[in-house]
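FW: tagging you since you asked about this chain on Friday. Here's the raw sequence from the shared folder, copied in full. Didn't touch anything.
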Amino acid sequence: MKWKMAENSLFAILLRQNWWVSALIALAVFGAVQNFMAWGYALFATTPFTVITLMVAWKQIRVPSGARLEKALEKLGYVTLVSARRWKVARTGAEPIRELVTAGEKQDARGCRHVVAGELTTQARAYAEERGVMLIEGVELAQRVGR
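HL: got it, structure written out here
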């Protein structure tokens, strides 16, 4: 039997929230249960919320900060801008590439690279080709991450 959590259950919703949301719920449950039962039982009642807090916090610690990661790489005096959008985005449009090109022009970058985990729209691919932005995706991305 395959176990699958219901998509809109309380715990599934908490897994998609920030860690502090489930921590607040754990504190509220502890306070409410402690009013009419011993503190040991109140602590036991918060166990599911505490576990979810730890799981979500662990996931959030391992993700790069912010929704977008931009890093300037300097090599031999040249600046290359590297941009990567959130990994959860299925299709990336031309806007992140426009922002990368604009930032590259401001910083007088020699080159721009855009890391794509999902798919690119045809407009985004055409814009990247037109502006000379190197796209790192698919097999090349897998090879670079695997190193």
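FW: The longest strand covers residues 69-75.
HL: agreed, and Helices lie at 10-15, 19-34, 39-45, 47-62, 95-106, 122-131, 138-146.
FW: great, closing this out.
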